[in-house]
């Protein structure tokens, strides 16, 4: 009896863990964005430079990346197996506000045989199949970036693996509630997450105005000039973000893991088992699909695969 009580107590303690125990600040930035249909036609924002880097090649379980129970997956005869994917990091360079990254890429710590994550997490993540192509340290130094902040599409481990390659004064910015979500899984990964991010770092969670609206999603015009719109797209995780960038090379839409794959985007199918809330993920994905359809020539970036040039979306 006493033994089972202790087990229950331990369970309650660890089941009550958040993504990290790092100090979290709520930050109000930019302007709540209420989309007008004329905005995109008459956009006079200063275009910003956009860079996409492939940090690593990787392979993970298809059933995590794509909802195989979706009728469209079934009609396409998609089955369990491994899917080739990549880890990306993006940089934006605003002429007035400087350089920010979206997701952190992969740090030099992942080059060696000994990875900075526990063996159990490494095997769950299939880390043996991770092939690092560009470390974040190399990306920053080759481009002479003076990085001010990193926005995270969300805080899953494959999106925070590069943080230690950035200076300590680089701000870490997430969506609402992303760092505080309490779950059993988080109790297992909390220590590794903190090791990857750094135990003395602080997380800044964006506050979205509920009246803001961009294709049904709450949105922030971050620099106040419509060049960089941050979209709150919950579902994959509670604080997932997507980003619309008016860049020198045209509009760019970063989906994060609201959609991991090319198949998911082309067929509007949500991710699979890696997603926390399928229904909410679907609502967010539908909004991003409508947004993309309204901007001719927009370039769309799923979380872990790039769309091939030949693919024409209906
Ligand atoms: Zn994810």
Secondary structure topology:
Elements: H1 2-15, E1 23-27, E2 31-32, E3 49-61, H2 62-65, H3 71-75, E4 82-94, E5 98-102, H4 119-124, E6 131-132, H5 136-142, E7 147-151, H6 157-160, E8 171-174, H7 184-197, E9 202-206, E10 218-221, E11 228-232, E12 241-247, E13 250-256, H8 262-267, H9 278-294, E14 299-302
Parallel strand pairs: 1-9, 5-7, 7-8, 8-9, 13-14
Antiparallel strand pairs: 2-10, 3-4, 3-6, 4-5, 10-11, 11-12, 12-13
Strand order of the largest sheet: 1-9-8-7-5-4-3-6
Determine the strand fraction and express it as a percent band.
25-35%
Helical content (DSSP H or I, runs of 4+): 10-25%
Kindly state the mean pLDDT as a whole number?
Answer: 89
- Tally of discrete structural domains: 1
Determine the structural class based on helices, strands and strand pairing: alpha/beta
CATH architecture: 4-Layer Sandwich
Q: Write the element-wise H/E pattern from the N-terminal end onward.
A: HEEEHHEEHEHEHEHEEEEEHHE
Radius of gyration: 19 Å
Runs in which pLDDT lies below 50 for 5 or more consecutive residues are none
How far is it from the N-terminal to the C-terminal residue, by CA? 61 Å
Number of strands: 14
CATH topology tier name: Metallo-beta-lactamase, Chain A
Note the main sheet.
8 strands, mixed
Which cofactor or ligand species appear? zinc ion
- Name of the CATH homologous superfamily: Ribonuclease Z/Hydroxyacylglutathione hydrolase-like
The global form is globular
**How many distinct helices?**
9
Question: What would CATH call the class?
Answer: Alpha Beta
